[in-house]
Amino acid sequence: MLSTFLVEHRWVTPVLLLVLVVAGLLVGPGLVRRPRLAWALAGLSVLPLLALTLVPTSRELVAGCEVQWAWPTPARVEAFANLVLFVGPVFLAGAATRRWLLAAAAGSASSALVELLQAVVPLLGRSCDTNDWLANTLGSVLGGALALLVLRLARRRAVVRVD
């Protein structure tokens, strides 16, 4: 159902990614100074991620994992949506902890855990796929890079205020 919507409205995920980046740049430096708020927003941003990856579907699948590698592009709507799915939580965790690289690594590891659960719990009705992990990891790297940029902006603003 969601995949069908995304195929019919291919513009949604690129626009969502653009909104995440622009909003992150605008509010990110303030979130760096308010880590509790950043953590709260990170927790909220994980809810759709969990719903889209671990809520059971009506399909029954045989345990296993599809091994394939394809670069997520806006034309590959499901893969690109998987990329966008991890940008927000990783960005917010990176801003909250001030450890962008750790946040990106945790995002990739979380994705691997989700795929592992999908592989070993067929009752979820979800397919394990290495493409999903790749797209999620790239989204984690993008979220981490956005956090790094915001951390530098926040540091620069703090130096300017002191002078």
UniProtKB/TrEMBL annotation:
What's this protein's name? VanZ family protein
> Could you name the domain of life of the organism this protein comes from?
Bacteria
Q: Does this UniProt record's set of keywords contain Membrane?
A: yes
Q: Does the keyword Plastid apply?
A: no
Q: Which InterPro entries match?
A: VanZ-like
Which keywords describe this protein according to UniProt? Membrane, Transmembrane, Transmembrane helix
Q: Which residues cross the membrane?
A: 12-32, 37-55, 75-93, 100-121, 133-151
What range(s) does the VanZ-like domain occupy? 58-149
